[in-house]
Amino acid sequence: MADSKNNSVVKHNMLNYQEKVLKSIEKQLDSKLFRAEIENQIKKTVDFRSSEKPQNEISLFNKKKNEIRMSEDIIKKHCREHKLYETPSLNDVLYLHYKGYSFIENLENYTGLKCLWLENNCIQAIKNLDNQIQLRCLFLHHNLIKKIENLEHLKKLDTLNISYNLISKIENLGSLNNLNSLNVSHNYLQNAEDIEHVRVLDSVSILDISYNRIDDLQVIS
User: Fold this and answer.
1) Contact between 154 and 133 (Cβ < 8 Å)
2) Within the chain, which residues score under 50 in pLDDT?
3) How many CB atoms neighbour CB 194 within 10 A?
4) pLDDT tens, residue by residue, 52-95
């Protein structure tokens, strides 16, 4: 009788142990399956997001050419950030500095601009400012500009800062009769011929050509 009772107890304990083991295994399996399902969902989400790049991101960065572009949407975004008008023509100032832009573009509708900040970018040429005839101040310092050009129509321009560029000659400013301040410092001017154009700029009262490569004594005289 005692042996039978002991066997019954052992059997009962074994069943309890097996039940606990099975529950533990089921719990682990459920956990693994749940984790696998979560990881699968995350992967699907990542794949979906990477396959659908936003349009404004495409227009902002051209990976192939390593260029950051000035798209219409991005300009409007900057306007919102600086609490400017979303209607382009209502803005008289525009801040597009420290963005890394390679080109001046998509400013056709910003016809009321009086001050335009474009410094500290990667701009290589002055262009596409045909509709900004109201400009008084233009800041283009710290860029990659090689030539002063396409500014003849800016008759009201008072201040032009093109310091810290790659300019080797002052030119194409003779029609700017209201130009008062001209900063061409930290460029590549070398001799008297490079700054000869200054003689016809009668309205300029503030001229900065410091920190260039001028070593010609004729410049001083």
Assistant:
1) yes
2) 9-10, 21, 25, 29, 31, 34, 38, 41-59
3) 23
4) 344 444 345 555 566 789 999 999 999 999 999 999 999 999 99
d(CA 90, CA 105): 18
Same domain, 38 and 77: no
Token pair, residue 124, equals: 């290589």
**What pLDDT score does 56 carry?**
43
Determine phi and psi for 81, rounding to 5 degrees.
Answer: -65, -35
d(CA 137, CA 145): 17
pLDDT of residue 215: 82
In one-letter notation, the amino acid at residue 58 is I
Which CATH number characterizes residue 163's domain? Answer: 3.80.10.10
Query: pTM for the complete prediction?
Result: 0.71
Say whether both 80 and 183 belong to one domain.
Answer: yes
How far from each other are the two terminal CA atoms of the chain, in whole angstroms? Answer: 129
Amino acid at the residue 153 = H
Domain housing 34? 2-46
User: What is the total residue count of the chain?
Assistant: 221
Given a contact cutoff of 8 angstroms between Cβ atoms, the answer to whether 97 and 76 are in contact is no
